[in-house]
User: What shape does this take?
Amino acid sequence: MKDLNPELNEELKKKEQIKEAILPVMYDYKDKRDSVLPESEEGLREKLRLIKENAINDIESLKKRAIFNLEKNGIIVIEAKDAIAAGKEIRKIIGNENLVIKAKSNTANEINLKEILKDKELVETDLGDFIIQISEEDDLHPVLPSFHIPPEKIAEVINKKYKKDIKAMPEDIVAFARTFLREKIEKAKIGITGANVISADGSVFILENEGNISLVSRLPDKHIILASFDKIVNTREDALHIVKSAAIYGTGQSYPAYVNIISSPSKTADIQNKMINGAQGAKEVYLILIDNGRSEILNSEFKELLYCINCGACINFCPVYHQITTRYGSGTFPGARGVLSSFFTQGKEKSFENGAFFCTTCKMCKENCPAKIDLSDLIKRLRERLTEDGIEPENIKEMLKNTKQYKNPFGKVEEGKIPKKLYCC
Assistant: This one.
């Protein structure tokens, strides 16, 4: 029989390939994570939760102290209420420069940096993000964005786009990316990164494995750091515990290959002990602290959401994510966290569209979260809010109506006959 809708079939085939790619990657991640977990995993998680809970409860005071200490060290700190304000500040710093190199940053995705700099040459330097960029595919994971794209597809894109002839081997792909991206990094005068954690005593922590963040934050004249204020914790010791937790729960490593601790622009005092900014590293460092709905979260029953350290562990074994991937969550954050965040940044209707009623409340997210955030409980609270405003799936409305009228969710049931609709509740 002739295929009547080849485009739809191709889309369904692609979705099945993605679903098939998820499980092997996630089980491999679980094995790695289990192998590096300390004997007292519960102690690790309890300490992390306490660090974040204390920080969020005292965040206004910690933010003031962080800004004071960072500015004292020469970092220019700018507070931005939302994505629009952040975009204006970024463009002001960049000025007339065209080439901008960027390292992995969920905050950059959140404010849609690609759109903000659509007239610039924005180059992703993290390999996964670079693959997503040149393949024009969807980013499916905050830590492993390109895990679903096979080497054959990556090599095909590179060979076509850059007139190369590399083999579909991970080693060859990495070698090409290293050479290509190094050339861009060496030319750029603007580097943009995110931040994993900020200490109130005056340091920014950025973890990585590839080494690209070290280059992006040091070689250009200007380094712009994008971060939300909930990344701030009390001390550098607290920050290092988060770094360790992020490595274990993010990629299954005992510790990252590199931890960048940035406390000021590069400087030297080697000439008559006079401190001069702009030695071999960045001459100027900017930290843009973004709110984007977090103040509202902070003052709500969803405050626990701000304990998140962006490791992605919550979606690794989420049954809903495994089935529909990015259809569950916002464009920035996949899964329940994205649904909850979108309630504050995009509105209640959008949070409904993003999957507020998709969650099965299995609590696999809480089981895998290093901060023990109970996303399924927060989703239940969100559903209560939406239901109060009359926003809920039509099937639920029908079930409630039938229950009131017929004392069952299926409606009028005739003896010996199957109901017209069988609901799962």
